[in-house]
Amino acid sequence: AEGEADCDVLVLGAGPGGYTAAFRAADLGLKTVLVERYANLGGVCLNVGCIPSKALLHAAKVIDEVDSFRDHGLKFGALELDLDQLRGWKEKVVKRLTGGLAGLAKQRKVDVVQGEGQFASAHELRVTTSDGERRIRFRHCIIAAGSRPIAPPGFDLDHPRIMDSTAALELEEVPKRLLVVGGGIIGLEMATVYQALGAKVTVAELGDRLMPGADPDMVRPLRKRIDKRYKSILLKTKASVVKTNKKSVKIRLEGPDGDSEETFDRVLVAVGRQPNSDRIGLETTGLGADERGIIAVDEFMRTRVEHIFAIGDIVGQPMLAHKASHEGKVAAEVIAGHKHAFDARTIPAVAYTDPEVAWAGVTEEQAKAEGIEYDKAVFPWAANGRSLSLERDEGITKLLFDKATGRIIGGAITGPNAGDLIAEVALAIEMGCEAEDIALTVHPHPTLSETVAMAAEAAAGTLTDLY
Ligand code: FAD
Question: ipTM of the assembly?
Answer without folding.
Answer: 0.99
